[in-house]
Write a structure and sequence with these properties.
Distance between the termini: 51 Å
Helix content: 25-40%
Radius of gyration: 24 Å
Largest sheet: 4 strands, mixed
Number of strands: 8
Number of helices: 12
GO molecular function: sequence-specific DNA binding
Keywords: DNA-binding, Nucleus, Repeat, Transcription, Transcription regulation
Subcellular location: Nucleus
Pfam family, one: Myb_DNA-binding
Strand order of the largest sheet: 4-7-3-8
Number of domains: 3
InterPro entries: Homeodomain-like_sf, Myb-rel_proteinP/Y1_C, Myb_dom, Myb_TF_plants, SANT/Myb
DNA sequence: AAATGCAGCAACCGCCATTCG
DNA sequence: GCGAATGGCGGTTGCTGCATT
Protein backbone atom coordinates (compact mmCIF):
# COMPACT_ATOMS: atom_id res chain seq x y z
CA UNK A 1 0.00 0.00 0.00
CA UNK A 2 1.41 3.34 -0.96
CA UNK A 3 1.73 6.35 1.17
CA UNK A 4 -1.18 8.62 1.69
CA UNK A 5 -1.04 11.69 -0.53
CA UNK A 6 0.46 14.78 1.00
CA UNK A 7 -2.89 16.47 0.68
CA UNK A 8 -6.33 15.49 -0.44
CA UNK A 9 -6.08 17.76 -3.47
CA UNK A 10 -9.79 18.49 -3.19
CA UNK A 11 -10.47 22.09 -3.94
CA UNK A 12 -6.85 22.87 -4.44
CA UNK A 13 -5.58 25.02 -7.24
CA UNK A 14 -3.18 23.51 -9.69
CA UNK A 15 -1.13 24.67 -12.59
CA UNK A 16 0.90 27.82 -12.93
CA UNK A 17 1.36 30.10 -9.99
CA UNK A 18 0.05 33.61 -10.19
CA UNK A 19 1.91 36.68 -8.99
CA UNK A 20 -0.56 37.00 -6.14
CA UNK A 21 0.12 33.48 -4.99
CA UNK A 22 3.84 34.07 -5.22
CA UNK A 23 3.50 37.17 -3.09
CA UNK A 24 1.40 35.39 -0.52
CA UNK A 25 3.88 32.55 -0.28
CA UNK A 26 6.93 34.80 -0.17
CA UNK A 27 5.38 37.06 2.41
CA UNK A 28 4.38 34.18 4.61
CA UNK A 29 7.81 32.58 4.51
CA UNK A 30 9.48 35.92 5.11
CA UNK A 31 7.40 36.24 8.23
CA UNK A 32 7.35 32.69 9.52
CA UNK A 33 10.26 31.01 7.84
CA UNK A 34 10.44 27.83 5.82
CA UNK A 35 9.10 24.51 6.92
CA UNK A 36 5.78 23.06 7.98
CA UNK A 37 4.85 22.86 4.38
CA UNK A 38 1.76 20.85 5.07
CA UNK A 39 0.18 23.55 7.17
CA UNK A 40 1.70 26.45 5.28
CA UNK A 41 -0.88 26.75 2.50
CA UNK A 42 -3.75 27.02 4.91
CA UNK A 43 -1.94 29.51 7.11
CA UNK A 44 -0.85 31.55 4.13
CA UNK A 45 -4.28 31.49 2.58
CA UNK A 46 -3.18 29.52 -0.43
CA UNK A 47 -5.25 26.91 -2.17
CA UNK A 48 -2.19 24.87 -2.92
CA UNK A 49 -0.69 21.60 -1.85
CA UNK A 50 2.11 22.05 0.65
CA UNK A 51 4.41 20.19 -1.60
CA UNK A 52 3.61 22.55 -4.41
CA UNK A 53 4.41 25.49 -2.14
CA UNK A 54 7.72 24.03 -1.20
CA UNK A 55 8.61 23.41 -4.83
CA UNK A 56 7.60 26.90 -5.84
CA UNK A 57 9.64 28.43 -3.06
CA UNK A 58 12.74 26.37 -3.63
CA UNK A 59 12.79 26.62 -7.38
CA UNK A 60 11.67 30.19 -7.96
CA UNK A 61 11.02 32.39 -4.98
CA UNK A 62 13.92 31.69 -2.69
CA UNK A 63 16.65 34.29 -2.47
CA UNK A 64 19.58 33.70 -4.74
CA UNK A 65 17.81 31.55 -7.25
CA UNK A 66 19.16 32.24 -10.71
CA UNK A 67 16.92 31.75 -13.70
CA UNK A 68 18.00 31.02 -17.23
CA UNK A 69 21.18 32.11 -18.99
CA UNK A 70 23.22 29.14 -18.02
CA UNK A 71 26.79 30.09 -18.75
CA UNK A 72 29.31 28.05 -20.66
CA UNK A 73 31.13 27.35 -17.42
CA UNK A 74 27.96 26.12 -15.80
CA UNK A 75 27.16 24.10 -18.87
CA UNK A 76 30.54 22.42 -18.76
CA UNK A 77 30.22 21.76 -15.08
CA UNK A 78 26.80 20.21 -15.47
CA UNK A 79 28.03 17.90 -18.17
CA UNK A 80 31.08 16.95 -16.20
CA UNK A 81 29.18 16.30 -13.04
CA UNK A 82 26.46 14.40 -14.83
CA UNK A 83 29.04 12.20 -16.50
CA UNK A 84 30.21 11.10 -13.10
CA UNK A 85 27.23 11.47 -10.81
CA UNK A 86 24.47 10.51 -13.17
CA UNK A 87 20.98 11.89 -12.71
CA UNK A 88 21.54 13.07 -9.18
CA UNK A 89 20.28 16.51 -9.96
CA UNK A 90 20.23 17.84 -6.45
CA UNK A 91 23.83 16.83 -6.03
CA UNK A 92 24.78 18.50 -9.28
CA UNK A 93 22.80 21.57 -8.35
CA UNK A 94 24.63 21.84 -5.05
CA UNK A 95 27.77 22.66 -7.00
CA UNK A 96 26.07 25.35 -9.06
CA UNK A 97 25.20 28.26 -6.78
CA UNK A 98 21.76 29.63 -7.42
CA UNK A 99 20.72 26.76 -9.64
CA UNK A 100 18.07 24.29 -8.67
CA UNK A 101 17.89 20.62 -9.37
CA UNK A 102 14.74 21.12 -11.37
CA UNK A 103 16.33 23.68 -13.64
CA UNK A 104 19.39 21.58 -14.21
CA UNK A 105 17.26 18.57 -14.89
CA UNK A 106 15.22 20.49 -17.43
CA UNK A 107 18.34 21.97 -18.95
CA UNK A 108 19.86 18.57 -19.30
CA UNK A 109 16.80 17.01 -20.81
CA UNK A 110 16.18 19.81 -23.26
CA UNK A 111 19.71 20.88 -24.18
CA UNK A 112 22.57 18.76 -23.11
CA UNK A 113 21.18 15.32 -23.71
CA UNK A 114 20.95 16.26 -27.35
CA UNK A 115 24.40 17.73 -27.45
CA UNK A 116 25.77 14.42 -26.37
CA UNK A 117 25.08 13.20 -29.85
CA UNK A 118 26.91 16.01 -31.52
CA UNK A 119 30.31 14.72 -30.80
CA UNK A 120 33.10 15.26 -33.16
CA UNK A 121 34.71 12.65 -35.26
CA UNK A 122 38.16 13.03 -36.55
CA UNK A 123 39.41 11.10 -39.47
CA UNK A 124 43.08 10.75 -40.09
CA UNK A 125 44.03 9.70 -43.55
CA UNK A 126 47.11 7.74 -42.70
CA UNK A 127 49.26 10.81 -42.79
CA UNK A 128 49.22 13.98 -40.79
CA UNK A 129 45.99 15.17 -42.29
CA UNK A 130 43.24 15.31 -39.75
CA UNK A 131 39.73 16.40 -40.48
CA UNK A 132 37.20 17.04 -37.81
CA UNK A 133 33.62 16.45 -38.80
CA UNK A 134 30.97 18.25 -36.90
CA UNK A 135 28.03 15.89 -36.80
CA UNK A 136 25.69 18.78 -36.19
CA UNK A 137 26.54 20.08 -39.61
CA UNK A 138 26.10 16.72 -41.20
CA UNK A 139 22.64 16.36 -39.81
CA UNK A 140 21.59 19.97 -39.92
CA UNK A 141 20.24 19.65 -43.41
CA UNK A 142 17.61 17.23 -42.28
CA UNK A 143 16.65 19.14 -39.21
CA UNK A 144 13.32 20.81 -39.06
CA UNK A 145 11.05 22.12 -36.42
CA UNK A 146 7.62 21.70 -37.80
CA UNK A 147 6.20 18.35 -38.62
CA UNK A 148 6.10 15.59 -36.09
CA UNK A 149 7.52 12.26 -36.94
CA UNK A 150 5.74 9.60 -34.95
CA UNK A 151 7.85 8.03 -32.29
CA UNK A 152 10.70 10.48 -32.65
CA UNK A 153 9.76 13.18 -30.22
CA UNK A 154 12.26 13.62 -27.42
CA UNK A 155 9.85 12.00 -25.04
CA UNK A 156 9.16 8.97 -27.14
CA UNK A 157 12.85 8.62 -27.84
CA UNK A 158 13.57 8.87 -24.17
CA UNK A 159 11.01 6.21 -23.49
CA UNK A 160 12.48 3.98 -26.13
CA UNK A 161 15.96 4.48 -24.91
CA UNK A 162 15.11 3.91 -21.26
CA UNK A 163 18.46 5.08 -20.09
CA UNK A 164 19.99 3.54 -17.07
CA UNK A 165 18.08 4.69 -14.04
CA UNK A 166 19.91 6.65 -11.47
CA UNK A 167 21.83 4.59 -9.07
CA UNK A 168 20.27 4.12 -5.70
CA UNK A 169 21.32 6.52 -3.08
CA UNK A 170 24.42 5.28 -1.36
CA UNK A 171 25.13 6.32 2.15
CA UNK A 172 27.54 3.85 3.62
CA UNK A 173 30.88 3.21 2.08
CA UNK A 174 34.39 2.64 3.15
CA UNK A 175 36.76 5.23 4.42
CA UNK A 176 37.75 6.48 1.00
CA UNK A 177 35.66 6.83 -2.12
CA UNK A 178 36.23 4.52 -5.02
CA UNK A 179 37.58 6.70 -7.73
CA UNK A 180 36.31 6.53 -11.22
CA UNK A 181 38.68 6.53 -14.10
CA UNK A 182 39.85 9.98 -14.92
CA UNK A 183 38.47 11.61 -17.98
CA UNK A 184 40.16 10.71 -21.20
CA UNK A 185 39.52 11.35 -24.81
CA UNK A 186 37.26 9.01 -26.61
CA UNK A 187 39.09 7.52 -29.49
CA UNK A 188 37.44 5.34 -32.05
CA UNK A 189 39.66 3.72 -34.53
CA UNK A 190 39.30 1.26 -37.31
CA UNK A 191 42.65 -0.26 -37.83
CA UNK A 192 43.28 -2.45 -40.79
CA UNK A 193 46.94 -2.20 -40.07
CA UNK A 194 48.74 -2.05 -36.82
CA UNK A 195 47.73 0.68 -34.52
CA UNK A 196 48.67 1.23 -30.98
CA UNK A 197 45.78 0.94 -28.62
CA UNK A 198 44.63 4.43 -27.85
CA UNK A 199 44.26 3.54 -24.30
CA UNK A 200 45.97 4.84 -21.28
CA UNK A 201 45.37 4.99 -17.61
CA UNK A 202 41.76 4.49 -16.82
CA UNK A 203 40.51 4.28 -20.36
CA UNK A 204 39.29 1.03 -21.77
CA UNK A 205 38.74 -0.10 -25.26
CA UNK A 206 35.69 -1.55 -26.86
CA UNK A 207 35.75 -3.69 -29.91
CA UNK A 208 32.66 -3.63 -32.02
CA UNK A 209 32.48 -6.10 -34.80
CA UNK A 210 29.37 -5.56 -36.93
CA UNK A 211 30.08 -8.72 -38.87
CA UNK A 212 30.20 -10.88 -35.86
CA UNK A 213 27.02 -12.17 -34.35
CA UNK A 214 28.48 -13.63 -31.24
CA UNK A 215 30.69 -11.80 -28.87
CA UNK A 216 34.10 -13.35 -28.94
CA UNK A 217 35.11 -12.72 -25.43
CA UNK A 218 35.22 -10.04 -22.86
CA UNK A 219 32.13 -8.25 -21.67
CA UNK A 220 29.28 -8.58 -24.08
CA UNK A 221 26.35 -6.35 -24.63
CA UNK A 222 24.59 -4.69 -27.45
CA UNK A 223 24.75 -1.35 -29.09
CA UNK A 224 21.25 -0.16 -29.72
CA UNK A 225 20.62 2.30 -32.49
CA UNK A 226 18.10 4.57 -30.98
CA UNK A 227 19.51 8.02 -30.88
CA UNK A 228 17.65 11.24 -31.00
CA UNK A 229 15.77 12.34 -34.03
CA UNK A 230 18.81 14.35 -35.02
CA UNK A 231 20.96 11.33 -35.13
CA UNK A 232 21.79 9.32 -38.20
CA UNK A 233 20.80 6.02 -36.73
CA UNK A 234 17.94 3.71 -37.33
CA UNK A 235 15.96 2.59 -34.35
CA UNK A 236 15.85 -1.14 -34.53
CA UNK A 237 19.26 -2.43 -35.28
CA UNK A 238 21.47 -3.80 -32.62
CA UNK A 239 25.03 -4.91 -32.74
CA UNK A 240 26.78 -7.31 -30.52
CA UNK A 241 29.16 -5.44 -28.35
CA UNK A 242 32.39 -6.96 -27.24
CA UNK A 243 34.63 -5.19 -24.83
CA UNK A 244 38.27 -5.92 -25.20
CA UNK A 245 41.19 -4.61 -23.23
CA UNK A 246 43.49 -4.78 -26.21
CA UNK A 247 43.52 -3.79 -29.84
CA UNK A 248 42.44 -6.24 -32.49
CA UNK A 249 43.27 -5.79 -36.09
CA UNK A 250 40.37 -5.36 -38.42
CA UNK A 251 37.79 -4.61 -35.83
CA UNK A 252 36.26 -1.36 -34.91
CA UNK A 253 37.73 -0.28 -31.70
CA UNK A 254 36.18 2.27 -29.47
CA UNK A 255 38.10 3.57 -26.57
CA UNK A 256 35.63 5.62 -24.69
CA UNK A 257 35.62 7.84 -21.72
CA UNK A 258 34.74 11.38 -20.92
CA UNK A 259 36.78 14.19 -22.28
CA UNK A 260 38.01 17.03 -20.18
CA UNK A 261 34.87 19.02 -20.55
CA UNK A 262 32.88 15.98 -19.62
CA UNK A 263 31.31 15.65 -23.01
CA UNK A 264 31.29 12.28 -24.55
CA UNK A 265 33.55 12.80 -27.45
CA UNK A 266 34.37 10.43 -30.21
CA UNK A 267 37.30 10.83 -32.48
CA UNK A 268 37.78 8.40 -35.25
CA UNK A 269 41.12 7.74 -36.76
CA UNK A 270 41.52 5.27 -39.50
CA UNK A 271 43.78 4.18 -42.27
CA UNK A 272 42.13 4.49 -45.59
CA UNK A 273 43.06 5.30 -49.10
CA UNK A 274 41.74 8.17 -51.12
CA UNK A 275 39.55 11.07 -50.28
CA UNK A 276 36.35 9.67 -51.68
CA UNK A 277 34.93 8.61 -48.38
CA UNK A 278 35.88 11.85 -46.76
CA UNK A 279 34.13 13.87 -49.41
CA UNK A 280 31.08 11.73 -49.08
CA UNK A 281 31.10 12.18 -45.37
CA UNK A 282 31.49 15.90 -45.56
CA UNK A 283 28.66 16.19 -47.99
CA UNK A 284 26.47 14.06 -45.83
CA UNK A 285 26.12 11.49 -48.54
CA UNK A 286 26.47 7.75 -48.53
CA UNK A 287 29.94 6.55 -47.88
CA UNK A 288 31.11 3.94 -50.34
CA UNK A 289 31.90 0.64 -48.86
CA UNK A 290 35.51 0.22 -48.04
CA UNK A 291 37.87 -1.24 -45.57
CA UNK A 292 37.14 1.42 -43.05
CA UNK A 293 33.38 0.81 -42.80
CA UNK A 294 32.80 4.43 -42.08
CA UNK A 295 29.06 4.13 -42.21
CA UNK A 296 29.27 1.60 -39.44
CA UNK A 297 30.95 4.21 -37.36
CA UNK A 298 28.33 6.73 -38.24
CA UNK A 299 25.62 4.37 -37.15
CA UNK A 300 27.06 3.57 -33.82
CA UNK A 301 25.15 4.51 -30.75
CA UNK A 302 27.83 6.31 -28.85
CA UNK A 303 25.69 7.10 -25.91
CA UNK A 304 24.66 3.51 -25.51
CA UNK A 305 28.26 2.55 -25.89
CA UNK A 306 29.21 4.99 -23.23
CA UNK A 307 26.57 3.64 -20.95
CA UNK A 308 27.80 0.14 -21.51
CA UNK A 309 31.31 1.22 -20.76
CA UNK A 310 30.19 3.00 -17.69
CA UNK A 311 28.40 0.03 -16.26
CA UNK A 312 30.69 -2.72 -17.40
CA UNK A 313 32.81 -4.35 -14.76
CA UNK A 314 36.45 -3.45 -14.70
CA UNK A 315 38.80 -5.71 -16.52
CA UNK A 316 42.48 -6.27 -16.14
CA UNK A 317 42.55 -4.17 -13.03
CA UNK A 318 41.57 -1.10 -14.95
CA UNK A 319 39.89 1.39 -12.71
CA UNK A 320 36.16 1.20 -12.98
CA UNK A 321 34.49 4.50 -13.74
CA UNK A 322 31.79 3.84 -11.26
CA UNK A 323 29.83 6.34 -9.36
CA UNK A 324 31.55 7.74 -6.33
CA UNK A 325 30.84 5.83 -3.21
CA UNK A 326 31.05 8.75 -0.91
CA UNK A 327 29.83 8.16 2.58
CA UNK A 328 28.82 11.69 3.35
CA UNK A 329 28.82 15.14 1.92
CA UNK A 330 32.38 15.75 2.95
CA UNK A 331 33.68 12.80 1.05
CA UNK A 332 31.44 13.63 -1.84
CA UNK A 333 32.75 17.16 -1.89
CA UNK A 334 36.22 15.77 -1.83
CA UNK A 335 35.39 13.57 -4.76
CA UNK A 336 33.88 16.41 -6.75
CA UNK A 337 36.92 18.53 -6.04
CA UNK A 338 39.07 15.75 -7.27
CA UNK A 339 36.95 15.42 -10.35
CA UNK A 340 37.06 19.10 -11.10
CA UNK A 341 40.80 19.24 -10.53
CA UNK A 342 41.22 17.65 -13.92
CA UNK A 343 39.33 20.40 -15.66
CA UNK A 344 42.32 22.21 -17.06
C1' DA B 1 -3.72 32.56 -41.98
C1' DA B 2 -4.36 28.18 -40.11
C1' DA B 3 -2.67 23.79 -38.76
C1' DT B 4 0.82 21.05 -37.06
C1' DG B 5 4.32 19.65 -34.15
C1' DC B 6 8.72 20.68 -31.77
C1' DA B 7 11.20 22.74 -27.81
C1' DG B 8 11.41 24.61 -23.39
C1' DC B 9 9.96 24.73 -18.95
C1' DA B 10 6.90 24.77 -14.85
C1' DA B 11 4.58 21.79 -12.17
C1' DC B 12 2.92 17.34 -10.70
C1' DC B 13 3.48 12.55 -9.15
C1' DG B 14 5.18 8.72 -6.72
C1' DC B 15 8.66 6.85 -4.12
C1' DC B 16 12.21 6.82 -0.56
C1' DA B 17 14.57 8.64 3.60
C1' DT B 18 14.35 10.95 7.72
C1' DT B 19 12.18 12.84 11.70
C1' DC B 20 9.17 12.77 15.44
C1' DG B 21 5.72 11.42 18.79
C1' DG C 1 10.41 -0.20 17.89
C1' DC C 2 6.66 1.42 15.22
C1' DG C 3 3.96 4.16 12.30
C1' DA C 4 2.61 8.61 10.66
C1' DA C 5 4.19 13.00 9.05
C1' DT C 6 7.28 15.46 6.53
C1' DG C 7 11.07 16.52 3.47
C1' DG C 8 13.46 15.55 -0.55
C1' DC C 9 14.43 13.59 -4.98
C1' DG C 10 14.03 12.04 -9.77
C1' DG C 11 10.86 10.93 -13.44
C1' DT C 12 7.14 12.46 -16.01
C1' DT C 13 3.41 15.27 -17.74
C1' DG C 14 1.26 18.98 -19.87
C1' DC C 15 1.06 23.78 -21.12
C1' DT C 16 2.82 27.56 -23.96
C1' DG C 17 5.35 29.79 -27.51
C1' DC C 18 7.32 29.48 -31.76
C1' DA C 19 8.95 27.51 -36.18
C1' DT C 20 7.57 25.18 -40.05
C1' DT C 21 4.45 23.47 -43.49
Amino acid sequence: MGRAPCCDKVGLKRGRWTAEEDDALANYIAEHGEGSWRSLPKNAGLLRCGKSCRLRWINYLRDGVKRGNISKEEDDLIVKLHATLGNRWSLIASHLPGRTDNEIKNYWNSHLSRQIHTFRRTYAAGNDTTVTIDITKLTAAGKRRGGRTPGQSPRSVAKNQQTEPAKTKTKDVGSSPTLPAKAKDVVVSTSSASSSPPQSDGARSVVVDPEQNQPSNGVSGSVSHSLSSDGPCSEDETWPLVMEPVDQTGLLEANSAVDQTGLWEANSSMNWDGETEMEALLSGGVVPEGPAQVDDLLDMDWEGLAADLWDAPAQNDVAQPAEPQAADSQELDWFVSWLLSDAS
